[in-house]
Structures are given as structure tokens and as C-alpha cells.
Specification:
mainly alpha, Protein Binding, DinI Protein, Chain A, two-stranded parallel sheet, 5 helices, 2 strands
């Protein structure tokens, strides 16, 4: 009986010391708003300018086709055209619509791929800056993408400052 009590006591003591080592309280928590980083950092702004230059002509062509379509639609809805001309303009409208949809689909896909490439490299840079910040300011936990966080835990602006310095 005595050896059983002694064994139980040692087991409880061992479990308590192990549990306390594992259950160290988190001392410092930070939160990063990735959407804000992707909007406000110099890297994000640079990426957006680069993509605007790269895809500007395609976007301009899309706007031109859209404007043509709107003007043609107004003309068709006015009912001022003779039936033969009405038919010609409807065919023209269908052609413009088809061209617009094909260009929009291709542009959207290409733009999305390029944007993802650019932001993937920026994300690596942001993660490195985040690790630098965590080590420098002794954070125990840094969280991204949460539903709610109090503003005192938000370190997004600090991260953007570090990224803009580098």
C-alpha cells in the first residue's frame, strides 16, 4: 500500500511538472491584417503599378468595347432604326459582346496569374519581416486572418513600416 501511494505521488508530481512546462502562458500576442498589408505597403503599391502598366492596354480595350456596346444598346433601344438596320446593329452588338467576353476572360485569367505570382513573392518578404518583428519585440504568438481582434494586438502598421524600410 505504501509503495502504491509513493508511486502515485511521484506520478502526480511528474505529471504536474510536465503540464506546467507545456502550459506556459502566452505573454505577448500580435495580429496582422494581411489585406491591409496587401493594400498599403510600398511593395503592394509597386506591384499594382506594374500590373497596371502591363495590362493597361487590355483594360483600355475592354473599356472601349464596353462603351461601344452601351452606345449601340442605346441606339437599339431607341427604336429609331429601320428593320434592316436594326438587324445589322444587333449582329454588330453580338460581335462586340463576343469579342468583349473573350478578351475579358483572357485578361482576367492572365492578370490573376501575374498578380498571384507577384503577391507570392511579397508574402515571403512579409513573412520574413514578421519573423524579424516577432524576434525583436519578443512576441509569443502572431496571428493572421481572424474574425475579431482588439486593436491593441494589431501590429499591421509595424509590419508595413519594416517592409517599407527593407
Amino acid at each position: 500500500m505504501r509503495s502504491w501511494l509513493m508511486a502515485t505521488g511521484m506520478t502526480v508530481a511528474l505529471m504536474a511538472s510536465t503540464a506546467s512546462a507545456w502550459a506556459e502562458p502566452v505573454q505577448k500576442i500580435g495580429f496582422v491584417n494581411t489585406d491591409k498589408v496587401y493594400r498599403e505597403s510600398k511593395d503592394a503599391q509597386s506591384i499594382n503599378k506594374t500590373l497596371e502598366k502591363e495590362f493597361g492596354s487590355q483594360f483600355k480595350q475592354l473599356r472601349k468595347l464596353e462603351k461601344q456596346g452601351i452606345e449601340l444598346q442605346k441606339l437599339l433601344l431607341s427604336n429609331k432604326l429601320p428593320p434592316a438596320e436594326q438587324k445589322n446593329q444587333q449582329e454588330r452588338m453580338a460581335k462586340i459582346n463576343k469579342e468583349y467576353l473573350a478578351l475579358k476572360s483572357a485578361t482576367d485569367e492572365e492578370y490573376s496569374l501575374r498578380r498571384n505570382e507577384e503577391f507570392a513573392s511579397m508574402q515571403q518578404k512579409a513573412n520574413q519581416a514578421l519573423i524579424e518583428l516577432a524576434k525583436a519585440e519578443h512576441y509569443d504568438v502572431i496571428v493572421k486572418d481572424v474574425v475579431y481582434v482588439r486593436s491593441e494586438f494589431d501590429i499591421t502598421d509595424k509590419l508595413i513600416q519594416i517592409m517599407n524600410r527593407n
